[in-house]
Amino acid sequence: MKIIIKKAIAVVLTIVITGTSNGIGSLCEVRAESSNSQTNEQLFLTETLNNELETVKELKSKRTENSNTYLMSDGSKQLEIYYEDIRFDQNGELVDYDSSLVSNTKNVTVGTDTLSKNDYAYVNKAGDCKHYIPESLDEDTPIVLTKDNTYIKFFPIIESEEMEYETETEAAADTSPDNLSLSDATLTDDGNIEYSVGDVTYQYISNTKGIKENVIFNSEPTEYDISYSFDLNNRYLKYSADTRQIFIKDSSNDDIVAYISAPFLNDSSEMNFNFDIETRVEEVDGKWIVTYSLPRNYFEDDATSYPVVLDPTIGWSTASNIDIRYTLNVGGSGGSVMDSSNHFMIANLDNGSGTGTDGYAAQANVRYKNLNEIIKGKYISYAYCNFYEESKSGTPLLSVYPIIEDWNYLTTTWHSRPDISSESISDIDMTIDNGYLSLWLTDWVRKLSSGEIDNDYGIAFYPQENSNVFWLYFYGLSAPNGPDGTVRTPVLVINYDDGENISASYDGSFTINAEYNSEDEEIDLSWDIYNSDVDRYDLYVREDDDVHFKYAGCTTTNEFSYDTDTDIENYDFRVVAVESGSYAPYGPYDTQHLSNILTFEKDEFIYHDQNENEQTDISYESVVMDTDGDELEDGYEIWDFKTYWNEETVGSTPEEPVYNLDTDGDGFPDSYEVFTLGTDPAVANTANYNSDGDNWTDLREYQEGTDPWLADSDFDGVIDSIDQAPRKTNENVNQTTVQQNINSSSIHMGLYDVEYQEDNANETVTYVENIYRGNRKEVYHNYEDIMLNVKNSYYYDENGNVTAIIESYDDNSTNALCCTYTYNADNKVIYMCDKNTRYQLEYDGDEITCVDIGNTERYSTEKDTVVDLQSVFSSLSIGALVLSEEETVEYANGQTILKKTNYYKEDQVQARKEISIYYNNDTDPQYLFKFDAMGCIYEVDDYTNGIANPTILSYNESTGIQGNPVSITC
After folding, report:
1. Strand partners, 388
2. Fewer CB near the terminus (10 Å): N or C of the chain?
3. Within 10 Å of residue 145's Cβ, how many Cβ atoms?
4. In whole angstroms, what is the distance from residue 160 CA to residue 123 CA?
């Protein structure tokens, strides 16, 4: 069937012009106006990215046969995948392809023959398949293609003008020496080889994987059969009527080892195609003969302009990383498949219907092999593919769809093309002539990365259903570079990074929750909607000891269920709330907010069923994972700090591992930098820096256990560098000096401290806290009344213990009060001091054995009485008073102290006690000590200052005695 595109275009334009009062000018104006936005946006984005990001260097270790990876100026990585291999494996090294033809300088043995350098003038410069081109092309010196241990030899059969045949079969079968030789090979300026006979030129173009052959008719031919002879080294030819290709198959296993593309004709207009070519394949005397019978009426038609080109291409069907299958529909017959080495086309010439059922249409399938595995788990900033325009006509309207079923590159035709998604990736109007199409594929590539699309079926280019007549040619797999060196082959660009390199920081305001769902064997995550501007939530997961988090998918809701794999021991989860920028599908302009990190660990419960068979139930429990024990969870060390989390040092053993706790080697452990200094633990601090100006460097402060941000860590008026006990408030202090010290002190806001507010009914509360330890550094209650506004400031040591609490009011700073705490090596309070009173505690393990208040012992286990209460329990209810004892001590100065011990029923076998201390004849206690049923003190109350909430110590089951009062107004 013959299709003359320019005639079809003319007919359609005539219809449009006659049906539009303003003529063709208005049509162009409307088209341009409706399409400028998207096309200009694509151009803007590409140029903006090129301007904003600079290439730092190529990461040569990441080179593959068809890709390069670059480190970019923002720390991201940029993967560029070419549609044809740009390098090949040569003795274990990747070497760049160079298919250009150069002079052959050596003899080569192929099979049992020797190709003499005198006969074979040209060879491709570098490649894993070699192309040998002779000076004279005939039966004795055919073109030879070699790959591995096989070869293909072929030559065109050129008959003498005197030869006459009764039938076409006789002509095709004749391989006698009467055939002419194509002599005097010419290397053109384009790097191609040409032979001429009469008014016909045989042109050979070296590609990476084979030879593209053009038979150029400069005038109407005298013969309409073009034949070739093939020597195939134990291979055979098989013609496919569906695809109109010829497959070269291995005789031993029928594998396709090479192919000859479907032939077609095109004239000098480049858009006057003809596919009515009969192909015959025959075996004659051990050689294979291919004959193309060309349509005489095409050459004789007045619309055909010379030269006319016949285009059969031969190539090895080696595994390629990229496939482009370019299929055509001609009059509903299925048409042909085309070789995409030099170009491929999307077209609709159905006079406006856009369906391609009765007229002419072209569509392309593109597969990126294993792309889903290559980018799995990577954070995709953006992805696009540049397709460079070769020529076009009309108003190209095309849509790009995900392919949703597998397909075979060699056998797919228009009628057997794979199914596509009902939703397109992009709808494109190519009215604006930028010379290329930047097809943005960010969302699709992200789905590949997360596993939502778990295949490599690729994408399909279709003419849109509502499109008018158009054609659009893109440069193909092996297209040569432009005159200015521009690479014109399609290139897929993917900018990616590891999840933890997202340009966002954690501030504690976005919190997720999760629990294991045993029925569905998944971990269900949930969270409050971050804000109304969030467009989606991305989930990232780290498994076991992976060094990176991986992108695992996204949702527009506030829930995500993640399927567990029982081979995985540990999971870390983090969610990123994303507010899409002005160019939502493309990534670089997003605003992102990090959630907390949750860790789950596999728990196996082994039991025996009723038949005594051993069974195992597997679940996942929420845990804190801190491999090196530095109080920084593994997930945060990997993502937020980029610090060592499991690096063992010299001398470490499996039984007693020793870890590197100082990533930047500046003398400060990573946790000390995060919790105390507030500096970046992955960047070394300035040596000998003295933050508080007390003559001790920060490093000395760390070594001495003092506060690097307070010149006087214990608020006793003596700076740390000359204080004999800089963490214990001196007994004899100058209260005026202490007051000045309190008034001038302020908390330090480090990198990991955040400030936030809560609005209550009658107050606004402002908090300052460390987001990774949760230490609250300051709480300010604003009642909009300086007589009531109060601020509590908290100071901590490197272990997270409260070392001082200051309470101050807006109305008068002289009323500020301070309470300090001193700890032993077990992080237990051994000494406290407020403005008027000192408290000293002694321990036996975790139990308080003695409490001194001022200079007087108020409680000692040595003087306590052990009482057997079992006999009186049975008649009492829980919480009832069981027994009360009193002990009075009279001192020489006349003062008496009464110790009253009350026992209360805790449960059916245990009692707890409270000890109250009374001075002289007071009816109200001055001190109250509360014990649990095990005899451990869990609360100390001091009523001597007449305050409403006098608790100075509280007990926590997991951490023991704490020096952080429930409330403090001392």
Report:
1. 436
2. N
3. 23
4. 29
Mean pLDDT of 623-634: 96
210, 246 Cβ separation under 8 angstroms: no
Q: What is residue 664's DSSP assignment?
A: T
Tokens of 550: 């991986």
Mean pLDDT over all residues of the chain?
82
Taking residue 282's Cβ as centre, other Cβ atoms within 10 Å add up to: 14
Task: Judge if the upstream peptide bond of residue 263 is cis by omega within 30 degrees of 0.
Answer: no
Residue 555 CA from chain centroid, whole number: 16
Q: Is the dihedral of CA 879, 880, 882, 885 positive or negative?
A: positive
Look-up of token digits 């392309």:
364
Largest CA distance in the chain: 147
Contacts 24+ apart (CB under 8 A), 736-741: 738/818, 738/835, 739/814, 739/816, 741/712, 741/715, 741/716, 741/717
Question: What is the CB neighbour count within 10 angstroms for residue 576?
Answer: 23
Residue/partner pairs of 863-866 with CB below 8 Å, 24 or more apart: 864/901, 865/901
Nearest to 239 by CA among 289, 284, 292, 281: 281
- Cα distance between residue 228 and residue 225, in whole Å: 10
**Residue 637, helix vs strand vs coil:** helix
Per-residue exposure over 237-268, b if at least 16 CB sit within 10 Å of its own CB, e if not? beebeebbbbbbbbeeeeebbbbbbbbbbbbe
Tokens 């995409």, located at residue: 340
CA atoms within 13 A on the CB side of 811: 8
Find tokens 């004659």 and name the residue. Answer: 284
pLDDT in tens, 217-248: 999 998 899 999 999 988 999 998 888 889 99
CA 106 from chain centre, in angstroms, equals 50
Contact 719, 711 (CB under 8 A): yes
What is the number of alpha carbons within 13 Å of residue 898 lying toward its C-beta?
15
pLDDT digits (tens, 9 = 90+) for 321-364: 678 888 888 766 656 777 777 778 888 876 544 444 456 788 89
Q: Within its chain, how far is the Cα of 123 from the centroid?
A: 43
The encoded tokens of residue 76 equal 């991201």
The amino acid that residue 725 corresponds to is: A
Q: Are 436 and 388 in contact (CB under 8 A)?
A: yes
Both structure tokens of 913: 């006690």
The helix/strand count (H/E) of the chain reads as 10, 64
Contact 123/130 with Cβ under 8 angstroms? Answer: yes
Closest CA to 942 of 859, 827, 823: 859
3-state secondary structure 639-654: HHHCCCCCCECCCCCC
Per-residue model confidence as pLDDT tens digits over 921-947: 888 888 888 887 777 777 888 887 666
Residue 951 near residue 941, CB atoms below 8 Å: yes
Q: Is the pLDDT of residue 765 over 60?
A: yes
Rounded to 10 degrees, what is the CA torsion of 714, 718, 724, 726? Answer: 20
SS3 601: strand
For residue 260, the SS3 value is: strand
Q: Please state, as a whole number, how many other Cβ atoms lie within 10 Å of the Cβ of residue 774.
A: 9
Whose CA is closest to 783, among 820, 811, 756, 807? 811
Q: Would the CA dihedral through 510, 380, 74, 687 be positive or negative? A: positive
Task: Please report, to the nearest 10 degrees, the dihedral formed by the alpha carbons of residues 337, 340, 344, 350 taken in order.
Answer: -10
d(CA 311, CA 204): 10
Backbone angles phi, psi at 891, to 5 degrees: -95, 160
Q: Which of 388, 344, 336 is nearest to 366 (CA)?
A: 344
Sheet with 911-919, strands from edge to edge, namely 881-890, 896-905, 911-919, 927-931, 937-942, 951-956, 960-962
Task: Quickly state the pLDDT bin for 885 (edges 50, 70, 90).
Answer: confident
**Sign for the pseudo-dihedral over CA of 622, 628, 633, 638:** negative
519 Cα distance to chain centroid? 30
